[in-house]
User: Fold this.
Amino acid sequence: MDIFDKFSTLQSRTDLVNRLGVDPFGVKFDDITNATRGRIGNRSIVLAGTNNYLGLTFDPDCMDASINAIKNYGTGTTGSRIANGSYTGHVDLEDALAKHAGMASAIIFSTGYQTNLAAIATLAGPKDVLFIDADSHACIIDGCRLSAAPTIRFRHNSPSDLDKRLTRHNNSEGKIDGGIALVVIEGLYSMFGDRAPIAEFVDVCKKHGAYLYIDEAHSFGVFGSTGCGLAEEEGVLDQVDFISGTFSKSLASIGGFCLSKHKGFEITRKAMRAYMFTASPTPSNVAAARAALDKIAEKPELRDNLRDRGLQLHKGLTELGFDLCGPPGPIIAVRRPNEVVAATEWNWLLEEGVYVNLAVPPGTPQSSSLLRISLSAAHTKDDINIILKAFKDMQGQGEALMAKVQAVMATG
Ligand code: PMP
Assistant:
């Protein structure tokens, strides 16, 4: 018995996909030129799968802030805030995030993944019950696994199913016995780009006295009049108990945050293991996110441009006859018949100079195979036309691509 035997199915799937060309999960860029262009060899690539929603990774102010932070505070913090202390940048960013969203408390983490892991695992204790959307991101699921609370899944984006399950779990007084109910949803779902009906979830949570936690990783900076996300867009931000997010998308950095309207959230710093026992975000990451937050506040035109590009691409792909998984928005997922077809097409698009994401089971809802596009405010109309032309040409290659799929399958 070999220690890697248990990965044999994964290995065969990987081998099959690799026979189609470049490994879609190990693609290497030789250069990143700006927020929308990269280079592989001597090919310029339109980046359409980066989650760089506001295109701020190359914003001069964000870059300067990051460089200056290294000069002033060094390259790393070399420890956790509990053991080794906080830098002014950590505290300033937390204050700015809380103020921007009108929340009582903000805690930042080293990644968005750790944010949900830490917060969910800690906020729900053994007497509590977690209710999560069926299509939850891996880090929400992992947070639930780490939590001592039982986890109940409700149907994706279904407030009525949540209502039923909360009713079933509550005692005659309409409460969880001896504990609380914590409901976890996302604002914008990362694979299909569909949105949660947040206001309806708020109503169901209110009815049952449940706490509501929303991961706005893909919607913070993108939606809402001040960029606070979909809860703000739906006018219910002040009724949400916890908002989590990441610095790795609109905030052009790496790290994560959890905001709460409850001052009591502060005490959890001393209880969240994925906050206490890991190094704090680096000065440069924190400074870039802080500068990006200012851009989110000062430049609503970034959101307008992103929305317009989403409308343009959604319309164009729909006219070409593609089956799209969600409404127009920063994430547009094109449904493909299976993962081999999707991987073949993904390779073809890359050869044509367009990088999108290949998304396949188990990382996708409904076991779907997707060519997932994420847009940026930095994309121009012409960029979208390049993406559309590539998809149109890919359709024109239908038979040749299918022959390639069959040839690869036959050697499997
Ligand atoms: N939540 C959601 C919904 C995500 O899609 C992701 C990552 N894509 C995360 C959290 C984790 O964010 P990070 O990359 O900062 O770890």
Summary: DSSP finds 15 helices and 14 strands in the chain. The longest strand covers residues 181-186. The mean pLDDT is 96. The pocket of 4'-deoxy-4'-aminopyridoxal-5'-phosphate is lined by residues 111-113, 116, 137, 139, 186, 190, 215, 217-218, 246, 248, 256 (CB under 6 Å).
